[in-house]
Each structure stands twice: as C-alpha cells, then as structure tokens.
C-alpha cells in the first residue's frame, strides 16, 4: 500500500497518512539467492538475465483437544496432529540496464504432509507457474502478448466436465455427448451417449469425473492426442471409488473423444470395468436404455454385457 500511494495508484482516506500504515512484513522468510547469469542484448539494449531460488520448510504438531470448535477430548482418539511442509520458488528475470522488467517467470512447488501418524497422513503437492511480460512501453523493446487460447490438456479437462454435465442434466442431453465423439467412435458405439447417461443415473454424476476437484489426475500429451486419467472417491452411502480414463484428439478448434473407460474399484481387486467404448465398439456392464433417437437395434449389435 505504501508503494501504491507513493506512485499515485491509491488514495488514502481523509485523515490517514502513510505513517499510519503498518510496515510491510512477510508472513515468513525464505532462504534464497539471486544470481546474475549473463548479459544479453535485447533490441539493441543491454539486458541482464537473473535467476532466483528460495526455499522454506516447517514441521510440528498441535493438540486438537485445545481447539474449542472441535469435539470433546474423549471423542478424539488421536488428538495430536502432525504437519510438515516445504516451499520452493525458482524464478528467472530479464531486466533492461535501465531497471525495466521485460520478462519474469516463476515456478512454486509446495508440499504438505498432515495427519494422525504415517498411515492416516494426507499428502499433497501443489505446483504454481506464473509469467509476466512487458508488452507495451513508451520506448525500448517489448514482447508479444500471451496466447490466451486453451491448450489441448485444458480443453480435454473441460470436455470431461461437459460430458458429465450433459449426462447428469435434467433432462439428460445425449445429443451434446454425441457431438463430442469422434466420427469413428460415433459409428462404432452409437449407444455410447445413452450409456453415459445411465452411468450418471446409476452411480451419480461425480462418478463420470470431477476435473475441478479430483483426488488424482494425470494428463499425458502425445501429438494431437491427450489422455486424461481422473480418480474419484466419494463418501456416499455406496462408498464409490473409481477411475475415468478419457482419450481425446484435436480437430481444428474441436476436441473429440476417441475412447472412454469408466472403472470402479472393488474389494478385493481387480477393478470392475463399468463402461468402455472406443473405435472397436462398446463393452459395458450397465443396462443402457439404448439411443433415444430410436436406433436401439443398431446399438445392440455393438453392446456386450
């Protein structure tokens, strides 16, 4: 706030001065270093390339018995919760000799380990990337603006949500699902859309994948294709736990489904394949109602129970 006021970007309320503002203070200190890597020329201007690395770590425990909002102490069999975490920043800066920032990129990796002992520990890893560019200036070099188009991976994750929402809507919208299938898949498994609707009806919409909140998500890119794997665990009466594997490909501005594999974890293993369709046809253990467009007889030829 002090800097914003000094630069004229913020105005303080009447009767408040800069001296009344609290001194800026970081939440915690990072051990780090900054290195001048080399000098280059950018648009004929002498420019420095710098890197910065910083890290921090913390661990400890606290007694849940002392938290008033939680249950009584005798209801907490494991009252001591332990936690550990690490934080690392890696950044690169491109700065003109005049001090003007032209480009900056940063990667932050944060790990969290929290729980009641090793067996009940919750482990998380979060990665954040950020980039800044100077795209307009009164004089001197500038960089091109960002390409704000979604990547194939981002569009594939969005496609998972679109398929789920179309299958779970009231009434269902199988036509929207068919529009996102590749021509080969639509021909080999014409009943695929209705089977997705049946899966949402049988196991709940979240069983079709929750890219917005998934316990386990991986993305593999190969050429024009993307494979998204999403594991879903739901605490409902049925205790559903499963996995969705969706393979897609890009065709111009469109992302199309090439294969769809919905699995359910059972005890004891192995996994139970609920629904799978690809260019070779469809296999399912669901009682699909058949295409709503009346092509039930054609659909039945590609279905195996």
Give an account of the 3D structure:
The relative contact order is 0.09. With 305 residues, the protein is α+β, with helices and mostly antiparallel strands. A hairpin with a 7-residue loop joins strand 7 (225-233) and strand 8 (241-251). The model is unreliable at 290-305 (pLDDT under 50). It has helices spanning 2-6, 152-168, 174-178, 183-188, 192-203, 296-300; strands spanning 31-42, 45-63, 80-96, 101-115, 121-133, 216-222, 225-233, 241-251, 254-264, 272-278, 281-284. It is extended and about 70 Å long. The chain is 16% helix and 41% strand. The termini are far apart. Helix 2 packs across helix 5 (192-203). It folds into 2 domains: 30-133, no CATH class; 152-300. A 6-stranded antiparallel β-sheet has the order 6-7-8-9-10-11.
Describe the structure using short key phrases.
six-stranded antiparallel sheet; single chain; disordered C terminus; 11 strands; 305 residues; 16% helix; extended; five-stranded antiparallel sheet
- What is the chain-wise order of helices and strands? HEEEEEHHHHEEEEEEH
Tell how many strands the DSSP assignment holds: 11
Largest sheet, if any? Answer: 6 strands, antiparallel
Unreliably modeled segments: 290-305
| β-strand amount | 35-45%
Q: If you average the pLDDT, what whole number results?
A: 78
Radius of gyration: 27 Å
Report helical residue fraction.
Answer: 10-25%
Termini separation (Å)? 65 Å
Indicate the multimeric state.
single chain
Strand order of the largest sheet: 6-7-8-9-10-11
Helix tally equals 6
Structural class: alpha+beta
The general outline is extended
């Amino acid at each position: 706030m002090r800097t914003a006021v000094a630069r004229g970007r913020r105005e303080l309320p009447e009767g408040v001065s800069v001296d009344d503002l609290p001194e800026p203070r970081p939440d915690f200190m990072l051990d780090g270093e900054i290195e001048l890597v080399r000098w280059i020329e950018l648009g004929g201007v002498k420019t420095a390339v710098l890197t910065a690395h910083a890290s921090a770590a913390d661990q400890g425990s606290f007694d849940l018995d002392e938290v008033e909002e939680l249950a009584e102490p005798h209801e907490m069999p494991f009252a001591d919760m332990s936690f550990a975490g690490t934080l690392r920043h890696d950044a690169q800066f491109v700065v003109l000799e005049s001090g003007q920032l032209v480009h900056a990129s940063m990667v932050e990796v944060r790990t969290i380990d929290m729980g009641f002992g090793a067996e009940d520990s919750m482990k998380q890893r979060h990665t954040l990337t950020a980039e800044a560019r100077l795209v307009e200036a009164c004089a001197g070099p500038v960089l091109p603006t960002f390409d704000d188009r979604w990547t194939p991976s981002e569009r594939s994750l969005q496609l998972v949500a679109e398929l789920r929402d179309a299958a779970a809507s009231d009434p269902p919208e199988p036509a929207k699902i068919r529009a996102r299938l590749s021509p080969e898949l639509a021909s080999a498994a014409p009943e695929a859309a209705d089977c997705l609707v049946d899966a949402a009806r049988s196991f709940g919409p979240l069983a079709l994948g929750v890219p917005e909140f998934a316990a386990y998500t991986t993305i593999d890119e190969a050429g024009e294709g993307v494979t998204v794997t999403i594991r879903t665990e739901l605490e409902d009466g049925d205790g559903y736990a499963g996995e969705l594997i969706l393979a897609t490909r890009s065709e111009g501005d469109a992302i199309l489904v090439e294969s769809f594999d919905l699995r359910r974890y059972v005890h004891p293993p192995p996994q139970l394949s609920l629904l799978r369709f690809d260019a070779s046809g469809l296999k399912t253990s669901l009682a699909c109602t058949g295409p709503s467009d009346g092509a039930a007889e054609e659909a039945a030829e590609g279905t195996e129970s």
